[in-house]
Each structure stands twice: as C-alpha cells, then as structure tokens.
Design goal:
The protein is α+β, with helices and mostly antiparallel strands. The chain has two domains: about 110 residues, Rossmann fold (3-Layer(aba) Sandwich), CATH 3.40.50; about 160 residues, Tumour Suppressor Smad4, CATH 2.60.200. Strands 5, 6, 7, 8, 9, 10, 11, 12, 13, 14 and 15 form an eleven-stranded antiparallel sheet that branches. The radius of gyration is 19 Å and the shape is globular. About 45% of the residues are buried.
Length: about 300
C-alpha cells in the first residue's frame, strides 16, 4: 500500500520542532510497517494540481496539520477519490474530532491496516470547496485578523487576543439570507454559520445537530448589533440554549444565498480566511464527495 503523508510545519501552536519530530516518527513507523510513503510538505504555495500528481497512484492521504491543511487538500482528495486520514497537529482539529482520529501513531497504522472508509458530503462557497463549516461575522473577522498577523503556528491565545481587537474595532455585517430559494433573513446584522460538521472552535458547536452525511447544510443565524448582544449570543450558543431562542434562525437546507448590502466582508471556511466581494455568496452541499479513512 502506498500513502501520501502531507505535513504542514506551520500548523498548530507553533512548536515546529516537536511537530516535525512527530511527523518523522509517524513516517518512519509507517515505512517500518511495510507501507510505501511519499513525504510531501504542504503550504500556501502548493497548488491542488501538485497534490493530485502525488495522489495519482496512492491508496490513502494522511494529513498531518490542522483543519486548514484538510481544507486545502480536500479538492485533490475529492478529484482523485483517495481517502483521507487527519493526523491532528492543529489548534482545533475539528475534522479529526468528528471521526475520533488522534495523534497516536499506532492508531494511524491500525487505520491503514484495517482500511475502513466512509464517504461524506462536502460543500462549495462560490465554487471553493469547504468541508467543515463557513462563517460570516465575529468569527470570520477574528480569523481574518489572525491570518493577517500570522508568522507561524497559532494558539487559542492568539484567537482570544485578536477577538478582543475585533470587539474594540466593532463592525457587524448586514446579511440577506435565502435558503433553498426562500428569503429567510433580510438585511440584518449578526453571525452566520453554515455547517457540515457539528464541531466548532472552542467547543461552542452552534450547529450541534449537523452531520457530514445527511446531504444538507445546517444554518445558524444569530442577530445582534451591539457588543452586549454578541456576548448574549455567545453565552446562548455555549450553553446550547440558542435552539430555544425564537429570534435565532436554526434550520437546514441544500443551498444558501447571501447578499452583502454593506460591501466586502471576511468569510471563514474551515477556519481559513477568505475575502469575498459583493454582491453575493452562494453555498451549496455536494453529497457523497469525500472519502475518509476511519480510525480502527
């Protein structure tokens, strides 16, 4: 069996030496177990076509990094049909959390030996693939600030620091949202999450009912216009009581259209910052498109 081991030295909390040692140990263990391993370093300069070339004759793709590494590798995995295993080295590791994948090298080897797979849904935002979720509002503003200042690995403390900066420089986007062709929100300010997975940063999990194989996206829109309003919304989501708030939209659909009346806004896809221009953003589910190598 041949596997591609894709690793990102900038993932996670910034201890590049420890991460590199762990990756090398995993590669050595896989080779000692009889697997042929193609060692590939990821990064912003690597094009999806480059990874597709590596995957041409592979049986599995192991992604050692964070959710951003999964995000950037997903298009190539979808195009080639190669199953992926997330060897978590990032800050949140939501993909690995969903499937119970760990940093254990023995767990990785056992998953390769047993080779059980599952096919899940992915989604697109204006044609760009995402796997876990999309967000517009407070979260995307924080992710944009973190990305703009990033020089290596990041930690939860970095997100907290930049979150305080977003609150200080307050600007809440207004959104008009249509779901499966029906307008549901008209020019309201607040936080939007469109989720394929139930897991979210800091275990907030606003779309805790989302599943990656139900052929729908879970949509949460929490309106607010003030800092106090944001605090109340975050508290409700953290306690999972937001489903009981009549003014918080919690629904699902296959296609989401978002109009941007106030101009450009930051978008986050799987925790990666994306800049979108008006007039609109269109998201839709792509059922049964990504193969996942399951832990034993």
């Amino acid at each position: 069996m041949r596997l591609v081991f894709l690793h990102n030295p900038s993932s996670g909390r910034g201890n590049r030496g420890r991460a590199a040692d762990r990756n090398l140990a995993a590669i050595a263990a896989a080779r000692a177990a009889g697997f042929a391993v193609d060692d590939v370093e990821s990064g912003p300069a690597r094009r999806p076509a480059d990874l597709r070339d590596h995957l041409r004759d592979a049986d599995a793709l192991v992604i050692a990094g964070g959710d951003g590494s999964v995000h950037h590798a997903a298009p190539a995995a979808i195009d080639t049909g190669i199953p992926i295993y997330h060897f978590p080295r990032g800050t949140e590791n939501l993909f690995a959390r969903e499937f119970g994948m760990t940093r254990s090298i023995e767990d990785l080897l056992e998953a390769l030996r047993r080779f059980r797979t599952r096919t899940i849904d992915t989604a697109v935002a204006n044609g760009r693939v995402f796997v876990i979720m999309a967000g517009i509002g407070f979260d995307s503003a924080v992710v944009a600030r973190v990305a703009g200042s990033r020089r290596g690995g990041v930690s939860r403390a970095d997100y907290l620091r930049h979150g305080l900066g977003v609150i200080r420089d307050w600007a809440v986007p207004r959104l008009t949202i249509s779901i499966d062709g029906r307008e549901t929100v008209h020019a309201q300010s607040g936080q939007l999450v469109v989720a394929n997975f139930r897991s979210y940063a800091a275990h907030l999990n606003p779309a805790s009912a989302a599943r990656p194989d139900d052929h729908t996206l879970d949509i949460i829109f929490a309106p607010y216009a003030t800092r106090i309003g944001l605090a109340r919304r975050l508290a409700a989501i953290g306690s999972q009581t937001h489903f009981d708030h009549a003014d918080i939209l919690t629904t699902s659909g296959r296609a989401v259209r978002i109009e941007l009346p106030d101009g450009p806004v930051p978008l986050q896809l799987d925790g990666e910052s994306v800049h979108i221009e008006p007039p609109l953003l269109e998201l839709s589910i792509r059922p049964e498109t990504l193969n996942v190598l399951l832990p034993a």
